[in-house]
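Exercise 3.2. Students should predict the tertiary structure of the chain below and write it as structure tokens, then compare their answer with the key that follows.

Predict this chain's 3D structure.
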Amino acid sequence: FLSNRAAALLSLKRYSAASVDARRAVALAPTFGKAHARLGQALYFLRDYAGAVGAYEEAVKYEPDNAVTWTYLTKAKTKLEKQKDRAKRRARGEDVSEAESSDPKRKDAVVSGGMLSSNRVRQAVMANQ
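Answer key:
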């Protein structure tokens, strides 16, 4: 129930509420991969990329053939690295333009469909680690 409600809240772009439901779903069913994936998606859109990576890594542990989750894991890792790079540049006093900032509303932030080969996506993710 909570995982499905988290999915509905994600559709409504209520990411904070979705993360609460997804966390509860994970607590009740820790081996349910979709709950972890929904938590990852909520955290991704809340720009908590480190949390999203952790949630997606848990999700693929329980659903290793889910190509969409592997794709989201890759995207979250990419965003996390960019976020860390911007933080380092800011710490050095460099100007980091708003154009480079993460915008979760951009179309490329959303993965749709599931037509990718999960093995191909998994191999690409593992190669980038």
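Discussion points: Residues 104-116 have pLDDT under 50 and may be disordered. The chain has six helices and no strands.
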